[in-house]
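Schema walkthrough. Field components (list of strings):
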Amino acid sequence: MIESTLNIPIEKTLNSKLPFFDFNNLQFGKNFSDHMFVIDFENGEWKNARIIPYQRFDLSPSSAVIHYGQSVFEGMKAYKNESGEVMLFRPTDNFKRLNKSAIRMCMPEVPEDLFMEGLIKLIQLDSDWIPSKAGQSLYIRPFLFATDEFIGVKPSETYRFAIITSPAGAYYSEPVKVLVETSYTRAVEGGIGYVKAAGNYGRSLYPAKKAQELGYHQLIWTDATEHKYIEESGTMNVLFVINDVLITPPVSTTILAGITRDSVLTLARDWGMKVEERKIKIDEIIDAFEKGTISDAFGTGTAATIAHISHIGYNGSDYLLPEVQTRKFSNKIKEELQKIRLAQAPDKHNWVLKIK
Ligand code: COI
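Field assembly_structure (string):
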């Protein structure tokens, strides 16, 4: 348990939306719980930490974030089990990745005590917003953005960090159809692909929209130079099981170091499975389809959790994965991860933080 040292003031809402909220119809990212955590960075220091009712920000039209995209974020989740216990999954890893993103985007790092205490107090206050049905959770969105009122191109001197939360169901409501993208590029070496910068997602919208028009849910990005090697999918890392080996591209400057990805690789290694983090040619995947050696393909992400891939589109053909019910690895890992998150399985790696 993290001791409170910061005494973050809390202003409670006088108009809770909770009594009117329908937990039976949860869509991802549409509804927000009653409160948010906010803190501002000015004159080289973080100040005015507060938990306040969820509300709009007052932003100047010249705010630096609007013009030059100094904006980074995280995605994490809180879970509630049948006994009413509340858990966060690997929050320290999200904290570290937020600051990795901040450094790359020339933004100030958020101190760990502020991040953790703001987060925990917010979750405690809005714990009734955490859904407890299978597949549901409270999605948590920490984000940091530039607030200088200045349109010269330079790092902002002022910032806001905030955390909002959103009761959520599945991000993908069915197995995902993905298209291998061989023209557009998500990230280049030396760029910002490895951090959670808002612009990485903005730039993916147009190619993803084109894929959606063709009936796919998402893209699988390929490398920027040759478009021959698999990178990641729009909202998740991608993993394959070929000849009983779990294979995924290595993290690099173009691929996000996913926390769910790392959890899956860690558990697979614990189970004695052969794991390879290496470059994967799209031709190797097509070859595995032709030989019948590919038994599983799935995406991993906080929002997506374990998202089974049903089809991979490439060069005008669709390659079909085996029926989801027959997939041993992804189903087993999905179940095990869920049990760990709900404190219903041993937490060997200390991933779970119980919130009292
Ligand atoms: C997440 O999985 O938390 C993400 O941030 C991906 C997406 C929803 C933007």
